[in-house]
């Protein structure tokens, strides 16, 4: 059956958020993190790339709130600017994966046959590899750069979107309103894009919010092993990698970027759970 009206969906979402107050905590955390990333140049007390060997490995103080790294750079400023890079990579990687994966999933579910078998065979192979291992292989082949890192992470996250889009498409293409569209002579492209995709978009958005958290973790992991954005550009994973050599004497180099990743992933997971609860009628207690 067709999707509920937008007003009803919005009311269900707000009602679910109000019942689960923890979801507002996640939304608030994300709002703060994204605000920090957007206004990083204004909020940063120092130049994140400026080196000062005289202030090398200073602990948190009144001048350097989160201390300095082995090159004398302000950790707080690098943390703020690193948020821009890490969130940009996570958002763009998930966006690419969502567009490509959802398109393939809808096509596979609607067309079926050999095309469906080939697509799902490739998806099964991709899912047989751990996300980090698959990203590691792709990033190693493409090389370390911002664009290649986005491509590598997007490839690792395309398969889940294919599965999420395919299953409801198979069920929905047999619905009466889709059959009516065929009877009226609508093209397959119009049926998939206008009648099927809007009805499954909410499920795709939930998956996107959850997998953005995975994308940020993957970016940090690849940056930690040297396959991320090239230094001196700050990223959270790169900061952890740079501070790992001095972890015993300069704990702040690893702890603060790790906390940034932890809080971001936690906030995205909370938001994803809230969206899932609002969209799934069984979880809302509806028939």
From TrEMBL:
CDD domains: TM_PBP2 (cd06261). SUPFAM superfamilies: MetI-like (SSF161098). One of its GO terms (cellular component) is plasma membrane. GO terms for biological process: peptide transport; protein transport; transmembrane transport. Residues 83-272 form the ABC transmembrane type-1 domain. The chain crosses the membrane at residues 21-43, 85-111, 118-142, 196-216, 250-272. It is found in: Cell membrane. Pfam families: BPD_transp_1, OppC_N. Keywords: Cell membrane, Membrane, Peptide transport, Protein transport, Transmembrane, Transmembrane helix, Transport. It is a multi-pass membrane protein. The keyword Thylakoid does not apply. PANTHER family: D,D-DIPEPTIDE TRANSPORT SYSTEM PERMEASE PROTEIN DDPC-RELATED, OLIGOPEPTIDE TRANSPORT SYSTEM PERMEASE PROTEIN APPC. Belongs to the binding-protein-dependent transport system permease family. This is Opine ABC transporter, permease protein, putative.
